[in-house]
Structures are given as structure tokens and as C-alpha cells.
């Protein structure tokens, strides 16, 4: 396995810091729409259904761009892909300053979503070029914290800008911050030295001396138990995330009766929960693996359990009155599920050959983020067709919670990275016997 130089070991944490703020800005852009929901609906005269569809337009090209750029990341340096995305998502918000009408808002959100869609998989792909498999859970969790920081801790600042200068000023502020990040990334962004499967996991075996690594058929990878399980829990986690970024602020204003400024501070709590729990669960997962616990449980079961607990908290929200209990349910419900993203990409990194990792991560993100396209629109429709808005808000939250519980349990039953690796190795061996492919992808099932 390639050994990192002392300089590389130091610099990789600089890269992690850059990626942390990259995802922070990315998720602040997502959260802004929810925080500005009430002023936007009021100014533009939108119904909940109309606003939900506008919010969902962000995800119209989100999944497709995740797939295409994910595949492109196997061929183009991630440094330049990350830079291009940050520049485009900053520029995409400029039209709102000139003509803030529903059509302009939709077009801006579509372009913003297309440029932000691949952000997480490409950032992870970049990160994994700096860390071998056994060391990935903690830095991946730190990137998840970056997302939480953007979605929550920046919320009071964004809310203050909205209340004092209007929602357009908030969009402008984030656009400028994105351009500043781009300039800094030009100075610190680099490609990591770990590219091959041998660098990716301790004990990885290569059966031939050739430098090429075997490619497993994409269909086989995507239909593996591990990928299916991770996509299921990831989809459920994204349902929770979409509710958090688009509808949670309105829920707290309309149902619980909090002011917008109070909501700006309340949504900090789920972000704080993520910032505490993500590294704690990441450390626990990594510790379990070092003690010999199979990653099926150390990663798969732990990530699925986070989704189940999150869904359970959402189920409680509609029956809780405003106060400490409701805020606690909001904190737990919208903080834990995101750990499924951390474990999901780590599990995919175990079973997918390095040269195919960017593409598979892109496809997985494409699948899970479909929840972002569906959830805001469905929630808006539920609110409008219910007997009254309060009933609609409560019903939508409860349905999302129930789905998360079921999906988490199913994911825990499906994930099996060791079994998938054995199956891939057997497939390579069988195909080699008939001259179809060389047996170069033989992984160590060290669990």
C-alpha cells in the first residue's frame, strides 16, 4: 500500500478543511430557500403547492448532474470539478437580483441544483484520494459536519439578513461567499496520491502485475445488497433533509407559532446535533472496525439505526405541543439521519473498485437525491389538500417519519459488504475461466 509522505499527511487536513467549507456553503444555499419560504410565498403570492414545486425544481437536474459529473470525476481531476461547481452555483443566483418573479426563481433554482448536485459525491471522491479505507469514517463524518454547519449554524445570520435586508440580499451574500471559496480553493486544492484499490484498503490483493484494476459490471455493483441497502437508507435520510431545508422553518412558524428569528436559532440545534453526533458515531464506527466488528454492523447497522431513530422522532413531532419536548424531537429527528450518508459512502468505498468509485457514488447520490425532487412538492400538496394547513403539516411530517423507520430497518437487513466482495471475486474468477475478464479484482474479506 502506498505510504503518504509527511507533507501529504499534513496537507490532507488542509484539503479536508476546504471541503468542509465547500459543503457548508452548498448546504447553506439549500437551507436558504426554507428560511425565506414565508417572505417568498407572501411577496409572490404563492400557495404551498406552488412553493413546494419551485423548491423541488432545485432537484430537477440535481440527480442527473450527480450521475454525469460523478462519472466524469473518474476522468477529470476533482480539484477542477469542485472549482467549476462553486463558480456556477454562485453565478446562478445573480438573476434573482434583477427579476425576482416565479419563473426566474425556478430557473435559478434549477441551475443552482445542477451545479450543487454532484458536490457531495465529488467531495467524497476527492477526500478518498487522501485517506485509505480504514481511516475514512472520521474525515467523512467531518464533511458531514460541514453540511450541518451550512444548514444550521449559518441560519441565524441568513435569517437576520432576510429580516433586515430582504431575501434577495441573502441570496447575494451566499453567491459572494461561494466566489471567495473558489479563490481560496485555487490555492489549496490538490489531488490526493491514493488512486488504486491497493491504496484503498489494507490487505487488498491484486492477482496480476498489471497496473489496471478490474471493472465489475455496473449492474452487478448497483444491484448488490450493500448498494441497495445504502440507497434505501440514503433516500430516507434525504427525505428528512429535504423536509428540514424546505418545510421545517414554515412548520415551526405555522404549527408551533415561533417567530422567524426564533426559528433561525431553533434550526441551529439539529445542526449542533449533527456536529456532535457525526464525529462521535464516526469514531465509534471506526473503533468497532478496529476491534474486528464486521463493517456490516459497524457501518451498516449503525447508519440504519440513525435513520430509524430520526424517523421515530419525526413521528412524535405532530403530537407534541410547542416547548422543550418539541424542540428535542426536532433536534433528534433532523440531526441523526444524515449519518447514513457517512456510512453509505464508506460502505460503497469498500465494495466498489477505485476506478469505478466516482461513477457509482454519483449514481447512488442520483438515486437518493430523488427524494429532494419528490418530498417538497408532495409536502406542499399534502398541506393544501388537507382539511387545514396545520393538519397538512402534521400529516406530512408523520408520513416522512414512518417511511424513515421502515427504510432504516430494511437497510440494516440488506447491507452485507463482505458477502458482496465474495460474490464479486467469484464472478471475476468464473468469467476468467471462460476468458471474459482477467481476475484482477480479488479483495480481502477481512471482516
UniProtKB/TrEMBL annotation:
The keyword Metal-binding does not apply. Pfam families: MFS_1 (PF07690). The chain crosses the membrane at residues 54-73, 80-100, 106-128, 140-163, 169-188, 228-248, 260-281, 302-320, 326-348, 360-383, 395-415. Keywords: Membrane, Transmembrane, Transmembrane helix. Coiled coil: none annotated. GO terms for molecular function: transmembrane transporter activity. GO terms for cellular component: membrane. The keyword Transmembrane applies. Residues 15-419 form the Major facilitator superfamily (MFS) profile domain. It is found in: Membrane. It is a multi-pass membrane protein. InterPro entries: MFS (IPR011701), MFS_dom (IPR020846), MFS_Na/Anion_cotransporter (IPR050382), MFS_trans_sf (IPR036259). This is MFS transporter. It comes from Paraburkholderia madseniana.
